[in-house]
Each structure stands twice: as C-alpha cells, then as structure tokens.
C-alpha cells in the first residue's frame, strides 16, 4: 500500500487499483471517503472502474491506516486539501476526476476551489455544504449527547447514529455490521475533534466560485444531505447536474454503486462531448 509522509508523525496511506490496458495511460479517479471511514468503503466501486481508470483511494489523516496522535490532529479543509495534494504528487497525477462521499465531497469542493487545475470533474455522493451537529441530534442518538456517546468509542456512536449515514431499511445487515466495525477503527478522540469542526463548517458562501463541472448524487430521503440542500447546491454551483435516487436515504455510494457509476459515466461523457446548439 503506497504512502507519503505528511510530517514527522504521519504517513498518508492510499490504495491504488489499475487493471487498465498497460499500453495506454488510463485517466485517474480519486475516491475520497467521509467522516470516520477509510478507503475500504469504496470496495464495490473498484471492480466497476479499475479496468478503465487508475483508481486512487486515500485514507484520510487519522483514519484507516493513516494513523496519527490525537495531539497532532487539527482538522481543517485546508489541511485535508494539502494531504490530497501530497497523495496526488506522490502518485504522479496532475489531474483527477474527484469522487467524494459526505465530508469527503466537501473536501473535493475545497480542492476544486483552491486548485481547479487539479480537478477535471467533481462527483459528490451524499455531500452537504453544511452539516451542523445540533440540527441532527434531535433525529439521531435520541436522548443522548453525541460527545458522551463518542467517548464510548466510534463504534458505539456509529451504532446509535447509523441511520444518518446508511439507509438501514434497504442495506443488508451484514453491510450495516461491517460499516460500523470499519468506522470503529477511528479513535474516538479524533472523531470528536473532527465532529466539532464539522459543526462549524459551512461551504455554501463559496459554491458560486467552484467552476469545475459537478455531479451531485443523492438519495431522495437522505437526512444529512437533504434534497432541499442538494437543490440549493445545484443552483449555486455554476456547472452542476443533480441526480436523485427515489426513496433512498443516505449511503447511496455503498448501497447502489452501479447506479452511481452509470450516472457518473453519462456525466463525464457529456463533459467530453457537449451537445451543440442549433
């Protein structure tokens, strides 16, 4: 598994999958996971993409194999963007199609905003532009405090709030159990720091400044990236298309990867060959 140093106490690990024809240079897709997850969460995208793309799946700092000490962990969009640039430079990639899920999508917006030359297109799954904790606490983790539950471990917190990140009405129980166990790999102290940062994050004032072609993919009933918010984002982003999966909550990228990839292929084809006006 490749890795690149991001400081004296941190190596950023990333997966690389490329089963494309060896005699041609395949375009690169970067898949970025969300809060308290890791590159494994794109497991069912790899077989759909790796014959035609070089696929890079970073583990965000403090998550997956990119472990670090709590005292060194200061989560900001700028820090995460710098981490992505390190990964891209280490992999020798100039430009990517960026696919982000939830918070990973917000990082993609920031990357496209500050380094537009590195992002050919954005594909954002279940991605809000703001995610304040206090508005969600009444829906999930009923009767408890997020910070108190998170101190018991990310696994306990993930179990109590699983409905805000995965539609358990349709997700197989095995997927739900695996999802929680993978999230539990993130230290709770790092999870609390990141959650407190997300509670203050609002990227909406900058949406109009992101010129990169953007595809929004969302479940119609997602509680964290609501249809109302997605429609707002689609109206603010200058070059944006919104695709909605009917009747689905959060977790569209893990529950319906084939649908997501097909919508992405159609979108990228449209960018490569835009219709001519007559």
Description:
Helices cover 36% and strands 16% of the residues. It is of the alpha/beta class. The protein has a single domain, classed as Alpha/Beta hydrolase fold, catalytic domain (Rossmann fold, 3-Layer(aba) Sandwich). An 8-stranded mixed sheet has the order 1-2-4-3-5-6-7-8, with helices on both faces. Strand 7, helix 9 and strand 8 (240-245) form a beta-alpha-beta unit. Helix 6 runs antiparallel to helix 7. The chain starts with a strand and ends in a 6-residue tail after the last helix.
Structural key phrases:
alpha/beta; 11 helices; Rossmann fold
CATH architecture classification: 3-Layer(aba) Sandwich
Instruction: Count every helix, treating DSSP H or I runs of 4 or more residues as helices.
Output: 11
CATH topology: Rossmann fold
> Gap between N and C termini, in Å?
50 Å
Number of domains: 1
Name the CATH superfamily classification: Alpha/Beta hydrolase fold, catalytic domain
Overall mean pLDDT stands at 90
Strand order of the largest sheet: 1-2-4-3-5-6-7-8
> What is the approximate shape?
globular
How large is the share of residues in beta strands?
15-25%
Q: Tally of extended strands?
A: 8
In the CATH scheme, the class would be: Alpha Beta
Poorly predicted sequence stretches spanning 5 or more consecutive residues:
none
The string of secondary-structure elements, in order, is EEEHEHEHEHHHHHEHEHH
What is the oligomeric state here? single chain
Rounded Rg: 18 Å
Kindly name the structural category. Answer: alpha/beta
**Secondary structure: helix percent:** 25-40%
The major β-sheet equals: 8 strands, mixed
């Amino acid at each position: 598994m490749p890795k690149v140093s991001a400081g004296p106490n941190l190596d950023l690990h990333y997966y690389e999958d490329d089963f494309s024809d060896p005699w041609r240079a395949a375009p690169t897709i970067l898949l970025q996971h969300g809060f308290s997850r890791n590159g494994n969460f794109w497991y069912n995208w790899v077989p759909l993409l790796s014959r035609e793309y070089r696929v890079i799946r970073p583990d965000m700092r403090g998550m997956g194999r990119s472990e670090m000490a709590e005292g060194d962990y200061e989560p900001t969009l700028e820090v995460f963007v710098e981490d992505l640039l390190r990964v891209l430079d280490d992999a020798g990639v100039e430009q990517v199609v960026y696919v982000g899920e939830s918070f990973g999508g917000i990082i993609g917006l920031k990357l496209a905003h500050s380094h537009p030359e590195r992002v050919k297109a954005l594909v954002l799954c279940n991605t809000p532009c703001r995610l304040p904790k206090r508005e969600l606490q009444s829906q999930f983790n009923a009767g408890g405090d997020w910070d108190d539950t998170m101190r018991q471990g990310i696994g306990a917190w993930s179990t109590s709030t699983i409905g805000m990140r995965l539609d358990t009405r349709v997700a197989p129980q095995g997927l739900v159990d695996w999802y929680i166990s993978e999230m539990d790999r993130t230290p709770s102290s790092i999870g609390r720091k990141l959650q407190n940062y997300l509670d203050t994050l609002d990227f909406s004032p900058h949406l109009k400044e992101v010129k990169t072609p953007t595809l929004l993919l969302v479940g119609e009933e997602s509680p964290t990236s609501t249809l109302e918010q997605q429609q707002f984002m689609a109206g603010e982003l200058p070059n944006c298309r919104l695709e909605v999966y009917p009747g689905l909550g959060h977790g569209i990228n893990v529950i319906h990867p084939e649908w997501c990839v097909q919508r992405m292929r159609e979108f990228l084809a449209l960018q490569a060959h835009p219709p001519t006006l007559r």
